[in-house]
Structure formats: structure tokens, C-alpha cells
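User: Some background: our group keeps a shared notebook of sequences we're curious about, and every so often someone picks one and asks for a predicted structure to add to the entry. Today it's my turn. The entry only has the sequence so far, pasted here. Could you supply the structure so I can complete it?
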Amino acid sequence: MLKLVLVASLLLFSIGVSAQELNCEVVVNADRLPDGNRQIFKTLETSLNEFINQTNWTDKTFKSQERIECSMIFTILKEDGDAFQGTLQVQSSRPVYNSIYTTPLFNYQDNSSNFSYTEFEPLRFDKNVYQSDLVSLVSYYVYLILAIDSDSFKLNGGENYYKTCQRITNQVENPNSKKGWESDTSKMNRYNMLKEVLARGNKEYRKALYTYHLEGLDKMESNKKEAKNTVLDAIMSLKKVYSNNMTSFVLRMFMDAKADEIVDIFSDGPNVDTRDLVSTLNKISATNANKWAKIK
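Assistant: Of course. Here's the predicted structure to add to the notebook entry:
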């Protein structure tokens, strides 16, 4: 009987452990601040790692090897009592089918990552209730990571996660007085990032995420030339996004994550015609012109 109870307990434990969706490394860097109480930042780093990696963000069960690899690096630039200002670098990736390669999905630096924090303050997420600017900030990016990852496996698969991002944004108290959450359309911030992703005119961006990854990269091992052409088609489809908005936030998001990988894909393996591709890349992502010049 004891053995049965033990086995049952282990099964319950393993279910609980595998339920978390993210394998996220969180770093809090306060090296730019004058010497002072640095223990609070170590406490914050530990709390954030536990909060992100031990919270069940969805109702799905993830095996340990299925957890999304990601990172969040906070760089604290200013402090005023329990108020902190800085940047947040967020990155995520996913494995490519039948290979040991992982492909970058998201790579973004948020320069308006301001929040308040008291040492040992509990961090809890409730999708129905605003908790704090810190919890909202982190939870927003957790769901954005989940959304982009899901979009790469299923067409528009991240829809519900984007809607949770939207709910988090709408719950922030006095958003127009807080950097990063303002509805000012001239700013590249969390509010406008989400607005652009969900805009009808940018549906090609989300379709490109799916085609590029599931129909392209995931088939590289079985037919590399065909897969390269599929990736090429996915990138070319982004011209429609550029036509709607030449300063598109989502194009920048895509290229910030993918520029180096695109160069690698089209600089190796079977030849495909890249003349139109390079011309398009120079148009929709001119800041990466030096990289596109390496594509042969």
C-alpha cells in the first residue's frame, strides 16, 4: 500500500513539475548603480526566476524537454527608494524539428522597464486583477513569448496568448502616465507592439512566422532546397506588411530575431535565386544592409 501511495505521489509531482511552460533564465544587473544595498537585486533575481519558472501560465502540460527556452535580463539604471528604472532584454527560441539546432524567435530590448519593488515582496499573477507594474511587465512578456512560439507551430496559434497580453495592458493603472504602456501611437512600446501584431493589415507577419518555421526550418533535414525556398517565400510575404507601414514595429521584431539566421540560411547549402530576396530585405530592413550583403 505504501508503495502505491509513493508511486501516486511521484506521478503527481512529475505532473506538477512538467506543467510549467518556460525554462527562463532571469538576470538582474545593477552594476551601473553606485555601491549600496545589492542584496535586494539578488533577492529580486531569485524571486523573478521562481515566479516565471514555477507559475502555470496556461492550462497545458509541457514535458521538461518541451519547455520554451528564454531569458530576461534586467539592467537597472536608476533607483529612487523602491522605484527602479532600466531596460529589459527579452529573448526566446525554439528547437527545429529533427535537428539539434534552436532558432531564435524573439529578441527585443525594452528601454522603458520601470517598476517598484520591495525586497521579499511576493510576486503573483492573476489574469483578472492588476498586481503591480513589475508583475504586469514580466507577465506581458511571458505571454508574448508563448504567443510567438505558438504562432510558429500553428497558424495564428498564439491568439489567446496575445489576448492575455491585451488584458494585462488594459489592466495597468494609469497607463498613459507610465513609460512603455502609453497609447501614444508615435512610440515603440508594449502597447503599440501588441496593437501592431493584432492589426488586420499585419496578418502576413503571423503567417510568415508559421510558414518560416513549420513549413520551412522544420523541413530542412528532409529537403533543404525546398525548405529554403519556403523560408524565402515567407520573408517575401512581409512586403505586404512593409507596404502598409514602412516603419512597422512587427518587421523590426522579426528582423531583430532573424537577421543573422537569414544570412546563414542563404549563404550555405543548395543554391536558390536570392536576387529578389536581397532586394526585398534591403527595402524592409535597411538597417541590416551590411548583413544582407553577405548573402550570395
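Suggested note for the entry: Residues 204-292 form one domain. Strands lie at 22-29, 68-80, 83-95, 102-110, 115-116.
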